[in-house]
Design a protein that fits this description.
Blueprint (H helix, E strand, L loop, with lengths): L1 E5 L4 H12 L3 E6 L7 H4 L3 E4 L5 H8 L4 E4 L11 H16 L3 E5 L13 H9 L2 H15 L4 E6 L2 E3 L7 E4 L9 E3 H12 L7 E7 L1
Parallel strand pairs: 1-2, 1-4, 2-3, 4-5, 5-6, 6-10, 7-9
Antiparallel strand pairs: 8-10
Helix pairs in contact: 1-7, 3-4, 4-6
């Protein structure tokens, strides 16, 4: 698969990149600071320096790609609006480049999914991440209303644990979800979702076993 990754220097994006390379995919990354990529990865990917909130930069990165995975995050910025700004760049860039398959890391607790979140992620979202989650809700709506083959990936609480493969994905959970899931397992799902249309036009809430 010819794949573009946005946010490849972040903690989840690094997992996506490592697993994509291990699987033999042809990878392009768009990053602000190429030096933040391990040298071993830089030698094996097409690295473009640019801004994921600029349509022109994203379009260049998507040229020739079958799918794009956006693992962009707010980092420690509790007032970040990166999600909505990136969505506003990604949608027209994907349309112009002909990249139809778009997998975006969102969060359980943003927008209407707050009703599915357990007590801990719901409190975390309300007290600490309210602005970020509100911005993610805007981004989610933009992605959903596009004509792209989108998937919104919704983990509850991310950890730096190992890749276990011990998880499942559902659209509507039958219980309140406060599961912890490793970034490695989230990356595993995002790559699987990007490879076909099974999760196209669907939200994926990730549950651990």
């Amino acid at each position: 698969m010819r794949l573009t990754i946005l946010g490849a220097t972040g903690p989840t994006g690094q997992q996506v990149l490592d697993q994509a390379l291990a699987a033999g995919h042809d990878v392009t990354v768009l990053v602000r600071t190429p030096d933040r990529l391990p040298q071993s990865a830089r030698d094996r990917v097409t690295v473009l320096t640019g801004d994921a909130t600029l349509t022109s930069d994203v379009r260049q990165a998507l040229t020739g790609s079958d799918a794009v995975i956006s693992a962009l995050g707010s980092g420690s910025d509790l007032k970040s609006d990166i999600a909505s700004r990136a969505a506003r760049a990604l949608i027209p860039a994907a349309e112009l480049s002909g990249t139809k398959r778009v997998v975006v890391l969102s969060a359980l607790g943003s927008g209407t999914t707050a009703t599915h979140a357990g007590a801990v992620p719901r409190l975390f979202g309300k007290l600490l991440m309210g602005t970020v989650f509100a911005d993610k809700a805007v981004a989610d709506d933009l992605v959903r209303s596009s004509g792209l083959g989108w998937t919104l990936v919704r983990p509850a609480i991310l950890t730096n644990g190992p890749h276990t493969g011990s998880y499942s994905a559902v659209e509507v959970p039958q219980r309140k979800v406060g599961d912890r899931i490793s970034r490695a397992d989230v990356a595993d799902f995002m790559l699987r979702a990007a490879s076909d249309d099974v999760w196209s036009h669907r939200d994926a809430v990730l549950l651990t076993h």
